[in-house]
Amino acid sequence: MRRQVRRATRATIVSALAGAVLVATLAGCSREEDGALPGQVPGHETQVTQDLCTRLAAESVARAAVVTGAGERIVVIGDSWASGFGLDDPGQSWPRYLDGEVRVSGFGGTGYSRGLMERCGPISFPERVPDVLTQGADLVVLEGGINDSKSDLDEVEKGFRATLDKLKDYEVIVLSAPKVNSRAKAIRVVNKMMRRVAAEYGVTYINVFDLELPMLEDNTHLTVAGHMQFGEIVARRIAESRSETVPAHG
Questions:
Q1: Could you tell me which residue ranges the SGNH hydrolase-type esterase domain spans (predicted)?
Q2: Which of 60, 68, 77, 160 has the fewest CB atoms within 10 Å, counting from its CB?
Q3: What is the tens place of the pLDDT at every residue in 153-170?
């Protein structure tokens, strides 16, 4: 269900969800070393530079400043899909369609492993958990795995377990990584691991790899319509998983 958007005016919200990430990012980026930004087509890699880190950190802060809906407190920890990469208004990204009071910690290029974005600072999912939960949460939704498909699987599993360990006192829902055609095979491997570990921890795992969604020209990030479709489907599948009246998807 789509809720009316409330723009957060208190600096504490930005500080709690993204300020620490921004500070760490600006301090941790390097102009000298380069690497591939997850989500780029081979041969068209983007260097992980100070400018890129600053841009992604700014998008993270902008999305964290937008609080949507009312009701139970939902925190989404995610990547560029959560932060609204490529959108004119990052507040249009998919978490706005969840049914509750939603706060978002999204940072492009990140995931459970430190991976290629470690040059931007301590911004992997497990490293961000303490900051994003300062205002509490009734439900935490994890949306990652696309970028992790380019990392060593053992490192991804280590980061995934570390994230779940830090969330042991919260209700957690893990979304599978969605389908990105350019690396669908590698994403399936990450999803298989996440499903296995989520079951071990007794955490709900929801498959979204089956979805075909409208993408931007990069064929990696969602259009505004894609965010709406993804958000509405995720909201419905979360409700179904919690009601236990509908079988798990895939």
A1: 76-227
A2: 68
A3: 999 999 999 999 999 999
